[in-house]
Design a protein that fits this description.
Blueprint: H1 3-16, E1 23-24, H2 30-34, E2 40-44, E3 47-55, H3 82-94, E4 100-104, H4 111-127, E5 133-137, H5 144-153, E6 156-158, H6 166-172, H7 178-199, E7 207-214, H8 221-235, E8 239-244, H9 261-276, H10 281-284, H11 297-305, E9 311-312, H12 318-321, H13 329-338, H14 347-352, H15 357-360, E10 364-365, H16 375-378
Parallel strand pairs: 3-4, 4-5, 5-6, 6-7, 7-8, 9-10
Antiparallel strand pairs: 1-2, 2-3
Helix pairs in contact: 3-4, 4-5, 5-7, 8-9
The chain binds iron/sulfur cluster.
């Protein structure tokens, strides 16, 4: 097969392993479109970066129940040599088709040998001058020296845990050992990152992520969020990705229904509430419930806790401001800044700070008073709130 065609096929194969960090940027890059290459957007340091994802090989010796590349399945197997793939990727990035690369692989010849080939590819790519964003997969049970090498080369490394704990993992990937192969690899990477940051070494100190498959193992949202919270606490993951299960023909899970996109969206929303807003999994789940409610999780929580005890926006600490629907980290900072100068008295002032009045109004006090909450006024249309003047009252 011609090399360009092989690259296209392996990039499409990598697209199967879709992660929430990336969305196909259809039509966004004429150079990529011309070559029919899938390009994604990744958020990197506050910037959106066009990312090219590929596998080194679509051959695999394992039998994960959900995976199109499981051993024995009748599908084309393609493999690049590290030097060839690195040269191809360097050329793509030089031409501006992508500014970032995500590199993964099927397991062929064992984890250690596979990891070595990924490292060789990454090292050559850097040697060929690529200084952009690089996301490198760590194979199950990668050795400590391999993890350290990956973290020197990459901006991000990831280990796919696949399922929230060993019992669920057995249903998906019975050959993978959660406690021996997967979680310890993340733990070693986390320790290396902590040491590198503490020592201030000239080390990329790659950030860490993982991925769960959603909807393939009858796992509950409670299990997914409990593990997500643990990974934030113990590993310091930058992100947990929730990959919606899709049944693949000729796999043991071919007759299972696909995961609902709404469920995956709720899980992401809940993850950000854990990471950035100080919520715990228990606060986001109904009592005795194992799944997130269908409503937006933050609004659901606020309706149960803030209707009777609204948050006084002029005095509440940042942590409480973050609990109000419509107020995220940036808007909480805006409130803290504004109230050093003025008393917040009306919804127009909130709107001027970028806070949607209809979302926040039912849950807040402004100078001791509940603001009006008519949805016709605040929820829709271009109506102007009663006071949209800049705040003038001095405290
Ligand atoms: S290890 Fe499992 S998930 Fe990864 S490529 Fe092989 S079969 Fe697929």
């Amino acid at each position: 097969m011609e090399e360009q065609e092989k690259l296209r096929a392996l990039a499409r194969a990598a697209a199967w392993d879709e992660e929430g960090e990336t969305a196909v940027a259809a039509g966004s890059c004429p150079k990529a479109d011309a070559q029919a290459l899938p390009i994604y957007w990744a958020a990197v340091g506050g910037r959106r970066v066009p990312l090219f994802k590929t596998l080194l090989t679509s051959a695999c010796e394992r039998h994960c129940a959900y995976c199109p590349f499981r051993a024995g399945r009748d599908t084309p197997r393609l493999t690049f040599r590290p030097a060839t793939l690195a040269a191809r990727l360097a050329a793509l990035t030089r031409r501006g088709v992508a500014q970032g690369v995500m590199l993964s692989s099927g397991l062929a010849g064992g984890s250690i040998a596979t990891q070595d080939r990924l490292l060789e590819t990454a090292a050559l790519l850097r040697r060929y001058g690529f200084q952009g964003y690089l996301h490198l997969k760590l194979m199950p049970a990668a050795e400590e020296a391999q993890i350290a090498a990956a973290m020197r080369l990459a901006d991000r490394v990831s280990v796919n845990l696949e399922a929230p704990g060993p019992a669920y993992l057995r249903r998906l990937a019975s050959e993978k050992d959660f406690w021996e192969e997967l979680f310890p690899t993340l733990q070693r990477a986390a320790a290396l990152r902590r040491n590198a940051l503490a020592a201030g070494t000239p080390f990329r100190a790659a950030s860490l992520t993982t991925q769960f498959v959603v909807g393939a193992a009858d796992e509950t949202d409670a299990a997914l969020l409990s593990w997500s919270a643990r990974l934030l606490r113990e590993i310091g993951v930058a992100r947990v990705y929730y990959s919606a299960f899709r049944p693949i023909a000729d796999t043991p899970l071919e007759n299972m229904p696909p995961a609902q996109p709404a469920r995956v969206r709720r899980l992401y929303r809940a993850f950000f509430l854990l990471r950035d807003y100080g919520f715990t999994p228990g606060e986001l789940l109904p009592p005795d419930g194992q799944f997130l409610p269908a409503d937006d999780p933050k609004t659901w929580w606020a309706q149960r806790h803030l209707r009777e005890q609204p948050v006084e926006l002029n005095t509440a600490p940042r942590a409480m401001l973050l609990r109000v629907p419509g107020i995220g980290p940036r808007r909480a900072e805006a409130i803290l800044r504004a109230r050093r100068e003025v008393t917040l008295r009306d919804l127009g002032q909130l709107q001027a700070l970028g806070i949607p009045p209809a979302k926040a109004a039912p849950f807040v006090l402004l100078a001791g008073r509940r603001p009006p909450t008519q949805p016709s006024l605040w929820g829709e249309g271009p109506q102007t709130p009663p006071s949209s003047k800049p705040p003038t009252t001095q405290r």
